[in-house]
Design a protein that fits this description.
Chain A has 182 residues and is α+β, with helices and mostly antiparallel strands. Helices cover 33% and strands 39% of the residues of chain A. The longest helix of chain A is centred in the last third of the chain and has 13 residues. Chain B has three domains: 172 residues, Thiamin diphosphate (ThDP)-binding fold, Pyr/PP domains (Rossmann fold), CATH 3.40.50; 155 residues, 3-Layer(aba) Sandwich (Rossmann fold); 171 residues, 3-Layer(aba) Sandwich (Rossmann fold). Chain B is built from 22 helices and 20 strands. The longest helix of chain B has 23 residues. Classes of the chains: A alpha+beta (182), B alpha/beta (564).
Chain lengths: 182, 564
């Protein structure tokens, strides 16, 4: 079976040790998580994990079901890129002297709709939100200008395209555990 | 209800009483001493079975749970006490056995400092439990205990761990009882889809060769009568997995035997001949399916299971029904048309008579030569009126006793199916006897597995647990030796066993025993064992190099069983 990029969105109770429970299901199969983002959701007390990874649909489906059945997991679903809106955020820490030296760097920032969020004599911090390709392309451009001090990119955050009820209603639907996985 | 100021340890015991617990399999130690100290004042409320090793505690709690349908409980200390339970917890996870393991933990203030006997027990047990939780405050005790028993015992059962910090054990607080009857993120009994059930009934009504596979879910769901009603009305032959041998009486006219690598010929062959396979509360383990790509390709498959994650896990099915079989089966029975499928059921008998001729007759009635495992199992079973609880260890003793024991009552087979834990049998038998003192409990074990938890003879001695232990001694790790003979060119790499004098060991524990070498003595020895109102070790010297047959070789299709 062909490997594809999948995004798994998981809602859990906000308790200590939950991340370990979720990631253990990947460890067991030696599936390598590409990105992971964890934070509180729009429902109080409910945590949301967005995990992206390359895998075969069959194993992604099985791992998602195993996560969904954990006692403190409210819901788990997996998606392909065409089924979600997703973004990542990146920060580029650039050398200010290099930026002053080469006007091309400012042009690159403007062309990519990046935001400068800090400037001081030593370094500047540039932020961009987008998809991996955009973020990495921008990184490559900065690297070509030899101005990158540090670079960091977040994991993706995503919302499903399919129209759905408000999260609260969705999570506490009596049948959600059975419906959780396609 | 008014509040009372008591210690966390006492609150634990009160909370356990609220859950109906009266039996503990426990072993004291440093970090659980306050609980054992409190237990000293509650001797009239609890029977604490002092095991001899914490692994024994979990297996005993498993035996207790599986034979009675109740949740088994262990209380152990932190560090090594806790880690010694890991095999039992894993076994309970794979075999869906409801047990709660409460382990002491160092005080909250020193967590993470590598304190004496500190280990990250929640971290270790998260992958092998339904729920694992650390109690750090006494106020959490009533809730955590109630939640633990609720989770362990409902839905698809499983093990739960409570890691109990020592400061929470000693702290005084205002105790208020708690109950838990729901967890918002947990649906233990999903409502089955009535559309799916209608579709299943249609498939059953249209099928010419329907075949039902009963798994342990039937026993866990107490759906014995419901299963019987469906198969009798719709004329469906039933094969049971090894975990579910007592889901339907062995002599029921619709019962066609046991599935699996060493199961019966008829059900294995007919798996690939049926036109409809109805799997109930079973999980298509590799030991049942053989080569998965050639498993029941010709059949439509209905899978009834309480656990959504089992659907399409190993075998892709045509029609899943997610629900409790006790609820689903009667709904199906209502909708199916009466049928007999006489010829189809007869076809199982035809294959089984081939097996009888080639294997079974010789196994249970060899006439001469060394004693065989199969004849011992059948004789013991018959001597108990086929009404005993069979507890097995793992290996040839397990496969042979599973093949030749017969069952008339529910909850009568206790065996380590998923994990295949050598050493499971002896402590599990103790747990079963303590839970069901009025029933005869027969342990079949081998010279390998018996020694893996042989220390529990001390528990038998202390408790006077009248377990009937049948030690089938072939001086080998028999099942591995069989594979070495068949697949590793007879290279018996570390499978011959240099054995101690087991009867002498038994007498060291004050346990009556008898060694049988001659066939002529076997009946009398079995009679003596069963008539003795105390524990008894029947040590039988069986043929050393005998194989369990028939067999689906590993990786072979389910219908390609070999007989020698």
């Amino acid at each position: 079976m062909e490997k594809k990029l999948f995004t798994i969105i998981i809602y859990t109770e906000n308790i200590a040790g939950m991340l370990n429970q979720v990631t253990a299901e990947f460890t067991r199969r030696m599936m390598n998580i590409d990105t992971i983002t964890a934070s509180s959701s729009s429902v109080e007390g409910v945590h949301r994990y967005t995990i992206s990874l390359w895998g075969e649909e069959d194993s992604v489906q099985k791992v998602t079901k195993r996560i969904a059945k954990k006692v403190d997991v409210l819901k788990a679903d997996y998606y392909t890129d065409s089924e979600i809106f997703f973004q990542e955020v990146a920060l580029y820490k650039l050398s200010t002297p290099k930026m002053l030296e080469k006007s091309s760097i400012s042009r690159i920032i403007r062309h990519n709709n990046a935001r400068v969020i800090e400037v001081n004599a030593n370094y500047s911090v540039v932020e961009v939100t987008g998809q991996t390709d955009t973020i990495m392309a921008l990184y490559d451009e900065f690297v070509a200008q030899d101005c990158v001090l540090q670079f960091v990119k977040s994991g993706r955050v995503a919302v499903p395209r399919a129209s759905q009820a408000a999260l609260g209603e969705l999570l506490f639907d009596e049948d959600y555990k059975r419906k959780a996985v396609k | 209800m008014g509040k009372e100021r008591i210690s966390g340890s006492e609150a634990l015991l009160r909370s356990l009483i609220n859950e109906g617990v009266d039996t503990i399999f426990g072993y004291p130690g440093g970090s659980i001493m306050p609980v054992f100290d409190a237990l000293y004042d509650y001797k009239d409320k609890f029977r604490n079975v002092l095991v001899r090793h914490e692994q024994g505690a979990v297996h005993a709690a498993q035996g207790y749970a599986r034979s009675s349908g109740k949740v088994g409980l262990c209380i152990v200390t932190s560090g090594p006490g806790a880690t010694n339970t890991l095999t039992g917890i894993s076994d309970a996870m794979l075999d869906s056995t409801p047990v709660v393991v409460i382990a002491g933990q160092v005080s909250t203030a020193v967590l993470g400092t590598d304190a004496f006997q500190e280990i990250d027990f929640v971290g270790i047990t998260q992958p092998i439990t339904k729920w694992s939780y650390q109690i750090r405050r006494p106020e959490d005790i009533p809730w955590a205990v109630a939640r633990a028993f609720y989770i362990a015992g409902t839905g698809r059962p499983g093990p739960v761990v409570l890691d109990f910090n020592k400061d929470a054990q000693v702290a005084m607080f205002d105790y208020e009882p708690a109950t838990v009857d729901s967890v918002r993120s947990y649906i233990p009994y999903p409502a089955p889809s009535s559309a799916a059930i209608e579709e299943a009934a249609r498939l059953i009504n249209e099928a010419e060769r329907p075949f039902l596979l009963a798994g342990q879910g039937v026993e866990l769901g107490e759906a014995h009568e419901e299963l019987k009603a469906l198969v009798e009305k719709a004329g469906i032959p039933v094969a049971r997995t090894m975990m579910a041998l007592s889901a339907l009486p062995s002599d029921h006219p619709h019962c066609v035997g046991m599935l699996g690598m060493h199961g019966n010929y008829g059900p294995n062959v007919n798996t690939n001949k049926c036109d409809l396979l109805i799997a109930v509360g079973m999980r298509f383990s590799d030991r049942v399916t053989g080569r998965i790509s050639e498993y029941a390709r010709q059949a439509k498959i209905i899978h009834i299971d309480i656990d959504h994650a089992e659907i399409n896990k190993n075998v892709t099915v045509d029609l899943p029904i997610v629900g409790d079989c006790k609820e689903v089966l009667p709904m199906l029975t209502e909708l199916v048309r009466p049928a007999e499928h006489r010829e189809w059921i007869e076809s199982f008998r035809k294959y089984n008579s081939i097996e009888h001729e080639r294997v079974i007759a010789k196994a249970i009635n060899p006439g001469e030569g060394p004693i065989l495992m199969g004849e011992v199992a059948r004789k013991v079973s018959e001597a108990t009126g086929n009404s005993a609880i069979l507890v097995t260890d793992v290996g040839q003793n397990q496969l042979m006793s599973a093949r030749y024991f017969k069952f008339t009552q529910p909850h009568s087979i206790l065996t380590s199916g998923g994990l295949g834990t050598m050493g499971y049998g002896l402590p599990a038998a103790i747990g079963a006897k303590i839970a069901m003192p009025e029933r005869t409990v027969c342990l079949f074990t081998g010279d390998g597995g018996f020694q893996m938890n042989i220390q529990e003879l001390g528990t038998i001695m202390e408790q006077g647990a009248a377990v009937k232990m049948i030690l089938l001694n072939n001086n080998y790790l028999g099942n591995v030796r069989q594979w070495q003979e068949m697949f590793f060119n007879h290279r018996y790499s570390w499978t011959p066993m240099h054995n101690p004098d087991y009867n002498l060991i038994a007498s060291g524990y004050g346990i009556a025993s008898r060694l049988v070498v001659e066939r002529s003595e076997l009946d009398d020895a079995i009679r003596e064992m069963l008539e003795t109102p105390a524990p008894f070790l029947l040590h039988v010297a069986v043929q050393e190099e005998a194989n369990v047959m028939p067999m689906t070789p590993p990786g072979a299709p389910v219908d390609e069983m070999i007989f020698e």
